Amino acid sequence: xxxxxxxxxxxxxxxxxxxxxxxxxxxxxxxxxxxxxxxxxxxxxxxxxxxxxxxxxxxxxxxxxxxxxxxxxxxxxxxxxxxxxxxxxxxxxxxxxxxxxxxxxxxxxxxxxxxxxxxxxxxxxxxxxxxxxxxxxxxxxxxxxxxxxxxxxxxxxxxxxxxxxxxxxxxxxxxxxxxxxxxxxxxxxxxxxxxxxxxxxxxxxxxxxxxxxxxxxxxxxxxxxxxxxxxxxxxxxxxxxxxxxxxxxxxxxxxxxxxxxxxxxxxxxxxxxxxxxxxxxxxxxx
Length: 286
What we know:
With 286 residues, the protein is α/β, with parallel strands linked by helices. It has 2 domains: 1-32; 34-285, Divalent-metal-dependent TIM barrel enzymes (TIM Barrel). Helix content is 47%, strand content 12%. The protein has helices at 4-29, 35-38, 51-56, 58-68, 83-92, 111-122, 140-157, 181-187, 199-204, 209-215, 244-255, 271-285, and strands at residues 43-46, 72-75, 96-101, 126-129, 163-167, 193-196, 222-225, 259-262. Strands 6-5-4-3-2-1-8-7 form an 8-stranded parallel beta sheet. It is globular.
């Protein structure tokens, strides 16, 4: 007859082995979590980066982006697809809408109602204006009027669970009347207006992202991650001068950031390849 001690030891070995299998299955068996999923902030792609691919095959391009590991997309047009069709593309590929670049004209007067309805269907909360005509930004007074307009729009979309925002280029960091346009706009808009910084565009104007992220806490709900290099014009994320890790720290702690959005506009590689490399490099940095 086997002793109670022997039986107990066998039972202990069985439990240890079983526990190990459970842990292993959680870590590896049920779909290993990617670094992006482990990150506190998910990663999306601004589809302007692959606009020509989208023109040729919008559904196919979205599927490729999902296969790369991206968790969301930010739209830059919808290529004549309906809101319902766009939503199905997202759902079929397990993607979320991280925002959309929307021309300001589509948020004025009667156009706003249709814009809100479309973006409700696709699940978009963030309406980002990607460009301003010169008359809306050529003086301090123009920037003040623009800020006022954005505040009014923010109030109109707020009941629908949406926010309006603005995406910078380089001219927002060129002095007007000894003031920086970005500061004029930021200081005269409410916290309901997203300040979507583009790290590459800022660097192109010799401006650093980190001080501005700190200056306006909670306003960087979405941020464009773009590389910049003085010596390597075609540098992709992780290959240039942008201090991404410092940016991540501010975004995580005080930026209020909900999405990291990669945007690539370099000419060295086919866009669909460039956005894959930038994604992989970003994940390593995260």
